[in-house]
Amino acid sequence: MLDPNYVRENLDSVRAALAARNFPTAALDHFAELDAERRRVNSEADAVNHERNNASKEIGALMQAGKKTEAEAKKAEVAGLKGRQTELEKQRDEADAAMRDLLSGLPNLPAEDVPVGPDESANVEIRRWGTPREFDFEVKDHVDLATDLGILDLERAAKVAGARFAILSGFGAKLERALVNFMLDVHTRDHGYKETLPPLIVNRDTLFGTGQLPKFEEDLFTLTDERGFSLIPTAEVPVTNYHRDEILDASGLPLKFVAYTPCFRSEAGSYGRDTRGLIRQHQFEKVELVKLCLPEESDREHEDLTANAEKILQLLELPYRTVVLSTGDMGFSARKTYDIEVWLPSQNTFREISSCSNCGDFQARRMGTRFRRAGGAKPEYVHTLNGSGLAVGRTWIAVIENYQQADGSIVIPDALRPYMNGVEQIAKA
RNA sequence: GGAGAGGUAGCCUAAUUGGUAAGGCAGUAGUCUUGAAAACUACCGCGGGAAACCGCUUGCAGGUUCGAGUCCUGUCCUCUCCGCCA
Fold first, then answer.
1. Pick the CATH number of A120-426 from 1.20.1730.10, 3.40.50.300, 3.30.930.10, 1.20.1740.10
2. Strand, helix or coil at A364?
3. Which nucleotides of B are covered by protein (CB under 7 A)?
4. ipTM given for this complex
């Protein structure tokens, strides 16, 4: 959520920023009048309220003093205010709701150093690590490799659940589990994150807080339960919301969480995209990094978080590059996003394996997550950050494809071997 | 699923037949002190405002009333017992 005061004072630059995100700016056409109306009605309702409060207090005093007739006279006087008050409160609620509807649908404003462009073609590569391996045989993709090895069964998954589901088995399942444990260990032991295991089902307030609602309901799996539950699309949702409607002590910041969870996405609208293999699934596993921090530290924390995610790929010796997303390619809640893309030999290209975003105070404002500096200062909104560290399924793909051998077997990266009970290679049984 | 108890500011605890949230601890600033402690003073839920001040706040949402922590309805959460259960 944008700060209404900021929007009021910077309407033109907000309009330009939204346009850079390909966001229709028509909604802002009514901002000024809506804002003025809201503030006018609010102060008027306040004034009437004040009048009534005073009268009620006087009645109370008269009753205490035993002056019944005077109290009755005062009551009759106050009764006339009631209709006007009800009307004003109704107007105020409507104006507030209209403003909230307007603001809650607007995406975050891009940071100043985000490249401006229409879509992913304007993303800018900022660094590259490792060198893609030279293969002296024809590479296979992860579907052929893993299916042949008997560690992946997509056909039966389609029978059990449907398209975009998978069954991992044997060393395939073990590799997934090894990756999860490896990532959690690195982030907790070396990077100082606190491991958490959040609910996989969340309510609507939580979804609003991180920005999934009201605009992206169709991306979620929502339960038929009347409580409005949805399956989480990412651990960012429950974890960032841990401190919703709280005022934190500044001395406790930054808070750094790492959470391993399954994630569930409807993938509505992505029909025909990445239909083969594990790239795009309705259910996948992810280790997620989340930070709540001071505003002045979020840029640095963002760099650190991205480096923490990259470290996993370095330890697994998987080549990758990091790109900064352009204004036209960023997510709703982000003010700046780095995508980390891992090398996939079968596609001869880099594919997203992590997305690390600084959301500034955008989510904090929706959640009501604030902090207070020492000395009893006014509460301020925290900054929130999140990033995959990493998408486990896609890491699994990267390991399978990058470590494939001519005979179709897979060499286990050194860093993972302790997590595989010393297994060094997955070969056909 | 059945029965019962409860939710007041960071924590603890009050509030008469409904009269407009009292107090303690912790915390912050200051006085005093070589320094600290103690004592004393102020602040000490949220929002707006330069300020004066105003509005909001007893889990949440409604209702009755001039006025609701208090009465009524719904709902969420916590706890206890019974049943069921990984």
1. 3.30.930.10
2. helix
3. 10, 19-20, 27-29, 43-49, 54-56, 66-67, 76
4. 0.82
